Amino acid sequence: MTTPIQVGIDIGGTKMLAIARSSDIHARSQITTGKDFSADDAQKAIDRFIHTLSTPPDSIGIAVPGLVDPHGVVIACDVLPQLVGWQPAIALASICKVNVLNDAEAALMQVVSNIQPQAVAAVVMVGTGIGAAIYAHGMVLRGANGWAGELGSIPIEGKTLDAQASGAAILQELGVDIDRLSDLVAAGDSRALQAIEQAGSKFGLGLATLINLLNPEAIVLAGGTLRWQGYLEAALESVERHSLDDLRAVCSIEVSPHGGDLVALGATRSILKC
Q1: Strand residue runs (E) in 137-237
Q2: For residues 102 and 134, is the Cβ–Cβ distance under 8 A?
Q3: Average pLDDT, stretch 45-57?
Q4: Cα dihedral value 85, 89, 95, 99, nearest 10
Q5: φ and ψ at 116, to 5 degrees?
Q6: Exposed site from 11, 26, 129, 200, fewest CB < 10 Å?
Q7: Residue 33 burial (CB count, 10 A)
């Protein structure tokens, strides 16, 4: 007898990762995305991945870097604007049950599987953009419209946190692409390292805001921007300066051990929560 297969899809600003999990299957596929990546591109990539599996999946969780309405329609996505209007749950309805959700919330689904139900915790994603998802006393805090966690939109010194601390902000500040930034960092370019450090410091202000507002026990960080030399260190120093001592003392801040798989893994779990 075959065991159920859960598929998780993480669609981000630079890549799309698909994984399939069961007791005896672990498949994965990754492709490049970008600003021109469309809903049709995503749908075709998902279809190709599903057809590589030995049996159809029992569920598919799809995580996107934007806002999703209660019907699974992508209604806002600054990172990948051509996904707006996409309705994957309808397109894939003939195959299996589908859940579409924000990428930070998907990451949270994986994180909360290992914490106490009464904990207060947050996941913060920092990649092309910045977003958060919050868990408190056994519940995901989604807000009145289901869009709570737009950490990248908070104002910091006249600009949004996204505009100052995200991966996209670093690239824009330097006028380079991600490959060139990698070269500059490897060469020890002072301007590039300074831009990364400054962005990290601003990111720390966002984390301090979460700590001061929510008094969480844990904040789990994930996303590609964390890998840049000096970014995380600057963020943690900023947290020390700008969060209240008593609140910071009870809050652990850790980078997810799941690395780039966190969102896709959480997406496989999300179908059980919807």
Answers
A1: 139-140, 155-156, 159-160, 218-222
A2: no
A3: 92
A4: 140
A5: -65, 140
A6: 26
A7: 22
Helix (H, G, I), strand (E, B) or coil at 234: helix
- Report yes or no: 253 and 123 within 8 Å, Cβ to Cβ: no
How far CA 235 is from CA of 165, 220, 232, 247, in Å, comes to: 10, 13, 5, 17
**Which residues on neighbouring strands pair with residue 125, listed in sequence order?**
131, 222
Helices 167-174 and 190-214, axial angle in degrees (round to 10): 150
Domains and CATH numbers, the chain: 6-101 (3.30.420.40), 108-260 (3.30.420.40)
pLDDT range class, residue 93, cuts 50, 70, 90: confident
Rounded to whole angstroms, the Cα distance separating 205 from 210 reads: 9
Residue 104, pLDDT > 80, answer: yes
| One-character DSSP codes across 60-108 | EEEEESSEE-TTS-EEE-SSSGGGTT--HHHHTTTTSEEEEEEHHHHHH
Q: Is the pLDDT of residue 271 over 90?
A: no
- Give 70's pLDDT tier (boundaries 50, 70, 90): confident
Give the three-state DSSP class for 207.
helix
Query: How far apart are alpha carbons 213 and 166 in whole angstroms?
Result: 21
Both tokens of residue 165?
A: 């601390």
Distance CA 267, CA 19 (A): 10
- Reported as half-sphere exposure (CB side, CA atoms, 13 A), residue 146 has a value of 16
